Amino acid sequence: MPGTRSRSTMPGARAHPYPGGVAPLSPPFSPAVRRPARVLAALAARVEAKGERHGLRYAWWIPTLATVGLLAATAAGAAQRDVLWPVGPAWIALLLALAPSVAHLVSPVWISTWWEAGSVLAGVALLMALGDPPATGLDLLAAALAVVVAEVTAADGVRRGAAVVVLALAVDLLVADPTDEQRAVMAGVLLFGLAMGSMLRWQMRALAAESAARREESERATLAERQRVAREIHDLVAHSLSVTMLHVTGARRALAEDDDAASRAEAVEALTEAERIGREAMADIRRTVGLLATDRTGGPVRPVPGAGDLPDLVAEVRAAGAQVELDVHGDLRRIGGSRGLALYRVAQESLTNAVRHAPGAPVAVAVRVERTRVRLEVTNPMPDPADRTADRVADRGGSGLPGMTERLRELGGRLHTEHVGGVWRVVALVPLSEATCPLTTARARA
Predict the structure, then answer these.
(1) Are the C-beta atoms of 363 and 325 separated by less than 8 Å?
(2) Quick one: pLDDT at residue 236?
(3) 351-396 residue pLDDT tens
């Protein structure tokens, strides 16, 4: 307003170091707080890592809580005997009882549970010798011994925990000279520690077994995915190379037999088609391998082939010069995605084998969509009956017949091949319903 001045513009006024006159909020944790937090985090990680190296998968707070409980019980037991002040042998007993547990937390060296149990028993025995136990109520040194029993049982098993129970009862009997009631209370507390340690050990084993099962399941899933991708790449490469070689062979023969313009045009056309198929194969391989990437951009992906693409597959092989006939009975749209892909790959592999092992022979592809299943049959005559194409296909070390068999088995189908009367026949049977699929049945039972 006119005639008024703000505080920041008055003569002699100091400008506030922060805009608006308000200091920014300080960070929630100062360096003095963050440093101890980092040290504690490092100690926790060290405790867990040291335990895992010895087969103990306990969270860091379990041994920490045991150490705190041991300290509190031992100090309270010494206070019950009124031996803490003045400073004397009782403090040596406290050091004997606490040294192993503290060393476990701060030292990277593994300390045997027998050393820990012996040290704690020595400290407790010294405290028992320095003073009489309380006339009424619970002797808290029994709680300290129960903590040790639980630690030994959780780390080394019930047998060693029971051995520590016997030693603790012997120390109590020989040093403290308890009454029958005190002995019963001591035994009950020690058995409670044994039960707690057993429960912790059982829980650790259950968690370890679950972790191992998950790791094995992940490895099996990874192996199955690798095998699936290997089959996909094999089918793509084998089929594309076979068709490409047909085109290249046709071009070579056209140039070798006739050198006129028409022959050259046919050769150029065949080479162009071979180039197109090769580029499509490379694109399919990149797409298949790209499915393994975990950081995809979400761009358009070419859909996988299905039963509806069988006519295109036959047309592609026929365009390369092979004699292929397709006979379809029924509606191919009834065949689902996974079953359609499996049938497509079986037909693709069968045509590839026919072109490779019986060049020039006519190939017949028949698809029959029945009420509950689909039947795919691929047949081709063998130029030489002595040529055991089946053996060559099965023994070539690739993913041919084994890959087709595995595909169909996962869907509840089966593959049948035979070489009879000079004819090589491949028959694939796939159920239309998922009721007979072993994977679906296993999930339903689960």
Answers:
(1) yes
(2) 64
(3) 888 888 888 889 999 999 998 999 999 999 876 544 444 444 444 4
Does residue 346 contact residue 404 with C-beta atoms inside 8 Å? yes
For 105, the token pair is: 């937390």
SS3 of residue 382 by DSSP: coil
Rounded Cα gap, residues 301 and 291, in angstroms: 10
Asked if residue 86 has a cis previous peptide bond (ω within 30° of 0), the answer is: yes
- The bridge status of strand 423-431 relative to strand 324-329 is unpaired
DSSP letter, residue 248: H
End-to-end CA distance of the chain: 79
* DSSP sequence for 4-46: ---GGGSTTPPPPSSGGG-PPPPPSS-HHHHHHHHHHHHHHHH
Contact 173, 219 (CB under 8 A): no
DSSP run (H or E) holding 430: strand 423-431
User: What's the length of the chain?
Assistant: 446
3-state secondary structure of 57: coil
DSSP state at residue 87:
S
Quick one: which of 68, 73, 71, 49 has its CA closest to 60?
A: 49
Residues of the chain predicted below pLDDT 70: 1-33, 135-137, 232, 234-243, 245, 247, 250-259, 263-264, 275, 278-279, 281-303, 383-400, 434-446
Residue type, 359: P
**Among 353, 364, 432, which Cα is nearest to 398's?**
353
- Exposure string of 186-219, with b = 16+ CB inside 10 Å and e = fewer, is beebbeebbbbbbebbeebeeeeeeeeeeeeeee
Please name the residue that has the structure tokens 């050091």.
95
Residue-wise pLDDT tens digits, 79-95: 888 887 777 788 888 88
Cβ atoms within 10 Å, residue 373:
16
Those residues whose C-beta lies under 8 Å from the C-beta of residue 320, and which sit 6 or more positions away, are 243, 244, 246, 247, 250, 273, 277, 355
Report the run of H or E that residue 418 belongs to, with start and end.
strand 414-420
- Starting at the earlier edge strand, list the strands of the sheet with 363-369: 324-329, 363-369, 373-381, 423-431, 414-420
Burial label, 266 (beta-carbon count in 10 A; 0-12, 13-18, 19+): middle
**Share above pLDDT 70 across residues of the chain, in percent, rounded to a whole number:** 71
Q: Are 380 and 354 in contact (CB under 8 A)?
A: yes
> Could you tell me the pTM of the whole model?
0.46
Instruction: Check if the beta carbon of residue 113 is closer than 8 Å to that of residue 153.
Output: no
pLDDT at 385: 47
